[in-house]
């Protein structure tokens, strides 16, 4: 290990990426809570007449509104994958060459076998994280499609009609709802593991991973900056 | 005996109906087809002149609830006219003829009126084991269906069986029960329901007779007029749903007050049918009005999305008590335990590495003394 370590401050996550990240996290939090309530409405006090309360309607409204935020946010991020900086680029998510797969194995070794890392650490997403976000992207799409397919009959929304084909494909709305609901748990699992891994990498790498999604900056030792 | 060649009015008159009865029928037909009462004169004109097409009604794997429903149409004359005057030239349940005589009658119709007759099909068709599970007159259902479909002007699939396969197609579908639309390569009018509403059935047949073509269908082949809205959209308990006022058990006070049955497993929010508008038994009531949730009987695969008295269906492969939430919660707990274990092991295995780094970094900073 070199005796002198100078750290450079690197601008990694541009504003649209950060905005996407937190809007997405917020939308998903709202969707997960309201979605769970739609699936299992709790018992409220039954003192009032129906005409004086609308809580279930409001929960559903919040779900649909957050659904729109979720969709458009995802579309903007996809666009940014083509025009943003190299850390935001779409090709960071897809392991297209041998080196990328070797990196994935390396990250797995660090994370699971907990060995000491040897190669250079990626400044942006590591390759494994990138691949997981890529898979996640399809699950986001699945949730958006099943969600808007269910939303269609509730509204005159163009987006609902655009997703109408999902229902006959999956068999019936009961099946669509079943899987839309089941996927709620994917988000719970993902968030749990994702947040843990962010903290974990922050801890073992010491480069300010967590705060990078807030301010955009990461810190890297100069001797490692060959990436 | 096929009576093709007579108009509806002529047949009715022959049967002893009055002109007034006929006009009443035309008015019903006009409204059923969505034309409004003042179109009844035009309808009458059509029924006076137009030749009445023969109708064949085939029965395959079914329970006859569709036929039972049909003969209980709210306008008794309508069912009467359709069954009696319009004639079913072949219907195993209702025809007088039997055996070879009946089969010959059907063959005659298919020959004499090729391309003109209306084919109504009740029941699904088994396809496993070469279709031995349903044979009539020594022939398989599939064979009979394909032959009859070839010359039909219009094909109607009655009920969930013919539209989607219904209970026979429920997992594991031992007979390979298959929907009509999957076996014939012609457009099929699907009229799902277990059974479909009598007045809906009558209206659809009337529509075909009157216009000589199919009603407008949605992407799943269902007439838009009756299947474009969910039971939930026009349910009179809907305000309770929006207010979050739910029946919790069938014998609680909320049930007595008529609150929404969503938590009792009501499938109204995902079921396309006319129950809450047309209602049953001549507009008397419909299941939800009688205090029972919708089972989703007009939906594809509704038997496999049980249990009926719970909102969330069982999660496939995890037994009847499990829902997506039980499975998800278990996975969530497992992940939390995994994460905690990983955190502990990180602190054990990487402690030295991190300690070295921290000490090094701190040493290198100019004001390291203060920190140390
Ligand atoms: C992270 C994303 C999402 C999660 C976790 C989620 C979760 C859920 C859950 C658990 C349900 C209850 C299902 C049930 O048991 O019946 C639900 C219902 C529903 N969701 Fe989502 N959802 C998400 C995204 C969306 C999106 C993007 C839309 C599109 C607008 C959407 C539209 C709907 C609709 C229409 C329903 C049915 C509500 C009703 O008819 O009352 N969801 N969602
Ligand atoms: C305290 C909460 C969270 C923190 C500190 C956090 C932090 C981060 C960081 C630092 C990254 C980039 C690191 C890397 O490349 O591995 C990231 C990426 C990402 N996070 Fe989070 N996150 C949080 C919550 C969430 C939640 C709740 C979700 C959604 C369920 C989420 C979804 C994502 C996605 C999709 C990316 C990829 C972003 C992109 O490149 O566009 N995060 N997060
Ligand atoms: S009883 Fe069923 S159909 Fe009626 S509002 Fe409630 S959930 Fe919808
Ligand atoms: S309310 Fe539902 S289950 Fe009952 S008859 Fe109508 S569609 Fe079928």
How would you characterize the overall build of this protein?
The complex is a heterodimer of chains A (227) and B (372). Chain A is mainly alpha-helical and 227 residues long. In chain A, helix 1 runs antiparallel to helix 2, helix 2 (55-83) crosses helix 4 and helix 4 (127-151) runs antiparallel to helix 7 (173-182). In chain A, 28% of the residues are buried. Chain A is elongated, with a radius of gyration of 21 Å. The model of chain A has no long low-confidence stretch (mean pLDDT 89). Chain A has one domain (7-41, 56-224): Fumarate Reductase Cytochrome B subunit (Up-down Bundle). In chain A, strands 1-2 form a two-stranded antiparallel sheet. Chain A contains nine helices and two strands; from the N terminus they run E-H-H-H-H-H-H-H-H-H-E. Chain B folds into three domains: 8-222, NADH:ubiquinone oxidoreductase-like, 20kDa subunit (Rossmann fold), CATH 3.40.50; 231-305, Cytochrome-c3 Hydrogenase, Chain A, domain 2 (Irregular); 337-371. By secondary structure, chain B is an alpha/beta fold. In chain B, a hairpin with a 2-residue loop joins strand 5 and strand 6 (139-140). Chain B has helices at residues 8-14, 19-32, 40-49, 65-70, 76-85, 99-112, 141-150, 159-164, 198-211, 224-227, 238-243, 253-257, 275-278, 324-349, 351-364, 368-371; strands at 55-59, 90-91, 118-122, 125-126, 135-136, 139-140, 154-158, 177-178, 189-191. Chain B contains 16 helices and nine strands. In chain B, helix 2 crosses helix 3. Chain B has a five-stranded parallel beta sheet, sandwiched between helices. Chain B has a two-stranded antiparallel sheet with strand order 4-8. In chain B, strands 5-6 form a two-stranded antiparallel ribbon. The interface between A and B is large, with 46 and 55 residues. The site of one protoporphyrin IX containing FE has 25 residues of chain A, from helix 1, helix 2, helix 4, helix 7 and helix 8.
């Amino acid at each position: 290990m070199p005796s002198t370590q100078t750290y450079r401050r690197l601008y990694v996550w541009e504003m649209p990426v950060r905005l996407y990240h937190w809007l997405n996290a917020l939308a998903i939090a709202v969707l997960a809570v309201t979605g769970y309530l739609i699936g299992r409405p709790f018992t409220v006090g039954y003192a009032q007449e129906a005409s004086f309360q609308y809580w279930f309607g409001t929960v559903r409204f919040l779900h649909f509104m957050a659904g729109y935020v979720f969709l458009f946010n995802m579309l903007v991020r996809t666009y940014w994958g083509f025009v943003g900086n190299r850390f935001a680029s779409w090709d960071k998510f897809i392991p297209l060459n041998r080196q990328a797969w070797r990196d994935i194995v390396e990250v797995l070794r660090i994370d699971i076998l907990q060995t000491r890392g040897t190669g250079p650490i990626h400044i942006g997403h590591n390759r494994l994280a990138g691949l997981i976000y890529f898979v996640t992207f399809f699950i986001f799409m699945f949730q958006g499609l099943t969600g808007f397919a269910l939303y269609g009959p509730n509204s005159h929304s163009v987006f609902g009609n655009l997703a109408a084909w999902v229902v006959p494909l999956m068999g019936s709305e009961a099946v669509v709802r079943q899987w839309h609901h089941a996927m709620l748990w994917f988000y719970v699992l993902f968030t749990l593991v994702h947040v843990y891994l962010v903290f974990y990498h922050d801890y073992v790498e010491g480069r300010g991973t967590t705060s990078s999604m807030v301010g955009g900056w990461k810190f890297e030792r100069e001797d490692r900056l060959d990436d | 005996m096929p009576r093709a060649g007579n108009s509806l009015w002529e047949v009715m008159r022959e049967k002893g109906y009055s002109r007034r009865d006929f006009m009443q029928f035309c008015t019903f037909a006009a409204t059923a087809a969505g034309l409004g009462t003042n179109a009844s004169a035009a309808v009458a004109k059509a029924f006076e002149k137009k030749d009445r097409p023969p109708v064949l009604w085939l029965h395959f794997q079914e329970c006859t609830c569709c036929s039972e429903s049909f003969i209980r149409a709210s306008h008794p004359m309508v069912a009467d006219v359709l069954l009696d005057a319009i004639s079913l030239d072949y219907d195993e349940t209702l025809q007088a003829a039997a055996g070879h005589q009946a089969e010959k009658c059907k063959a005659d119709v298919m020959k004499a009126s090729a391309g003109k007759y209306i084919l109504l099909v009740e029941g699904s068709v088994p396809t496993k084991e070469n279709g031995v599970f349903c044979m009539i007159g020594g022939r398989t259902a599939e064979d009979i269906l394909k032959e009859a479909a070839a010359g039909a002007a219009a094909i109607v699939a009655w009920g969930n069986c013919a539209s989607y396969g219904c209970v026979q197609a429920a997992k594991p579908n031992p007979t390979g029960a298959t929907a009509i639309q999957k076996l014939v390569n012609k457009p099929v009018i699907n009229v799902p329901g277990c059974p479909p509403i009598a007045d809906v059935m009558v209206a659809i047949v009337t529509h075909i007779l009157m216009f000589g073509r199919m009603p407008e269908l949605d992407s799943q082949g269902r007439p838009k007029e009756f299947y474009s809205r969910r039971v939930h959209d026009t349910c009179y308990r809907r305000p309770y749903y929006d207010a979050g006022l739910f029946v919790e058990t069938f014998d609680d006070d909320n049930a007595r007050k008529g609150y929404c049955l969503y938590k009792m497993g009501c499938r109204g929010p995902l079921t396309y049918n006319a129950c809450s508008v047309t209602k049953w038994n001549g507009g008397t009531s419909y299941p939800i009005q009688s205090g029972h949730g919708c089972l989703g009987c007009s939906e594809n695969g509704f038997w496999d999305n049980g249990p009926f008295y719970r909102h969330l269906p069982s999660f496939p492969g995890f037994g009847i008590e499990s829902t997506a939430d039980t499975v998800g919660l278990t996975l969530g707990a497992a992940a939390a335990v995994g994460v905690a274990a990983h955190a502990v092991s990180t602190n054990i295995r990487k402690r030295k590495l991190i300690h070295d780094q921290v000490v090094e970094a701190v040493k290198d900073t100019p004001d390291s003394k203060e920190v140390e």
